[in-house]
Amino acid sequence: MTVQLPPEAEEREVRFLGSASIDGTPIAYIVVLSSVVTALSFIPFSVTIGTSVSAIPLSGGILPLVGFLLGPVAGAVACGIGTFIGAFLAPYTAGFLPATVGGAALASLAAGLMGSKRGSWCWILVGFAVPAYLFLAARAVLQNGVELKIFIAGTILDWSALILLISPLRKLVGRWLRSFDLFRLAMGLVLGTWIAGGVAHLFQMSLSYAYFNWPQESWIFLIPVIPFEQGVRCVVGTLIGARVITGLRALFLIKPPTALY
Amino acid sequence: MLWTCPLTPVAMDAIATLKNVSYLYPTSTVPVLKDISLEIRRGEFLGIIGPTGAGKSTLCLTLNGIVPQFYGGRFFGHISIAGKDTLSYPISDLAQHVAAVFEDPEMQLTATSVENEIAFALENLRVPAAEIRARIPRVLEAVRLAGTEEKHPQDLSGGQKQRLAIASALALQPDLLILDEPTSQLDPVGAEDVFATVKHLNQTLGITVVMVSHAAEEMATYADRLALLSDGQLQATGTPSEIYGQCDSLKTLGLRPPQVTQTIAQIYDLALDTMPVTLSAGLEVLEKLTHDRDLAPVPKLEEPSPRREQPQISVRNLSHTYADGTQALSDVSLDIFPGEYLLIAGQNGAGKSTLVKHFLNLLKPTSGTVMLGPQSTTQLKMSDLARRIGYVAQNPDNQIFNSTVEKEVTYALRNLGYDSGTIQQRANDSLAAMNLLPERQSHPLSLPKGDRARIVIAAILAMEPEIIILDEPTIGQDDRGANAILEVSQQLHEMGKTLIVITHHLHLMPDFAERAIIMGQGSILLDTSLREAYHQTEILKSTYLAAPQAVLLAQKIGQLTGKVNPLLTPTEVANYFSA
Lengths: 261, 579
Fold this sequence. Notes:
Chain A is mostly helical. Chain A has ten helices and three strands. In chain A, strands 2-3 form a two-stranded antiparallel sheet. In chain A, a hairpin with a 2-residue loop joins β2 and β3. The two termini of chain A are 19 Å apart. The radius of gyration of chain B is 25 Å and the shape is globular. β1 of chain A pairs antiparallel with β4 of chain B.
């Protein structure tokens, strides 16, 4: 970048010196985004009834976005707190609390790992996700007698997200999120939301299934529902995310060091 | 430019020192501040003036470290506040020396009671509870809000809210108090109140004050020294008389001096060593001239002739009570005729915005009727009303939600199903009218607030409505920006549109509005010609409005000559002495 008018004085190193930050992200950002997550917890959007005790909240669409905006650690904190408060204020979307809160934090954490930074963390996440998937498979197929093909179809979101997470596409998503081209940005948001949401869903599903075994009939019912709901989350995350990111870029607010946009 | 020396002699005891400061926002290639060197003296009241986009707000944000620590970007040079380098100390550290109050008090008030509001920042700085309890009554007394401790901040008037924001800043016991356009949203008396309060604090507590404001009359009266910024550069510093005395140079920058200075500067063949910038100084000069010069005849006060055609908007016995029980309008009746240019003025909370929102059916009458032509507005669809009445609300940000200026301007047209050729044509015309063509692909939020207001006006223009309502359109604008907006309104008026402008900036309206409606506490106090209304100074005062200085000068001269002297503008007053 060429400065049009060369300043007279020496250039100074610019740093955020405030101590009120998590992983370099100002607390104020975390508070604001956790409030947004809480507010969106009030809006149910699930097309299924009783899938996880209660309806799925609209905040599910922005959990990965929070990770893109704040980075993996601050994003996970914001989503965890926001979802936890939302669960009490809007219990009709709370679901199974440990899975809901943990899943929210994981969705944001996974989203924050889409870029090139902290790639090794991604492998740690995969290290937990693969056993979680195997546990789910063992419990469904071996213990509860769900047909393998039904199980694979019912977990299409989970295994596709896992594969995409370990593929080079993860870094491509990070590049697209940094793009000023609106189409690429949108593509980054769609794919990023699918992957991060899918990984979180895998952990939520494993945990929920450990408590609430459901029969093959339910698995069959969920085959189209789970990808469809994740698709809606992707649309929500992309619509909100594209506007928020273009707005933030225009506002010149300092970016958290681990932000992806 | 007539100023030759950019800096006055350096003070020995400076609270803030800026050395060759330049700054670029992230992703920008153009410095918003360019090589600024300035010393702010301990205990002074420094006014910062400059056109919109000059870098005034950015300069203020450099003083508490928010720029560049929070915004990032590239920073050159050094700023030291109370001996602390703003890039070497955390913002929380600097906040103990520098407190800031911004344009919109609503943005700064978060607590549920006045005393909690003041305690908030202190608690964050871990001030002991006993000390917090001791400071709250002291600062409330200083800003004349004693007795409001238990009140909810939202129950205060606009001026009171801004004074609460000042009290909260003051509680930090800062060495330096920064106020960035703190009075732009207040009625004139509320604004005067804030200026007087700040000056009182400056004089009695010795707090150094840096204030950014377009309010030339108040800055001339209260500031010890002015710094003039333009295009990111410090053009000059000097006394108000030295800076405002250069009327022509200010005009080229899109700024205006106080009306009294404009008046004296326009009087033919009058040479003065020092240009008066305050009302009292100006009166002294004019008093002498009334004896020395032949005086020109003055215009007569004429009653507006009654109109016989069907009113475009007819309001009958309109009352409105909000859900919380606040009665905002009480038995208001008026007719607005096609092609009128109408000013609506009155104190904060007088019911001006409530009244015009009934025209759009955004609010429904508690009792009474509002007719648009022959139909009641309650029977018309919102979309039909939106096509016929364009409303530019007070806060432009509430009406902006697209990612580019062009998308914002074409948004309503696209939704109303216009063809692409018409959309493009209208967008081009309205963007050109508001000087926004170069910014058409910019994100609206990347532009200054003044430009954002023009985006909303451009979007309304593109709709080509019959009636256009501008609710405080000149807030945050410099003189050039304010006049540019009003000139567009004038062009629309000449095209036959009905214009309704709500503003506190009475000095801007004589060249535009024909009729004035003055409101107070939900009622119409005056409905007459602009000239007549401006000279009803007691009624204006009763609704916290202040007549422009030119009107006050004319009335004082009238008292001296024993004649009714209904002059309105600096030019009219100057011509009176240039016969």
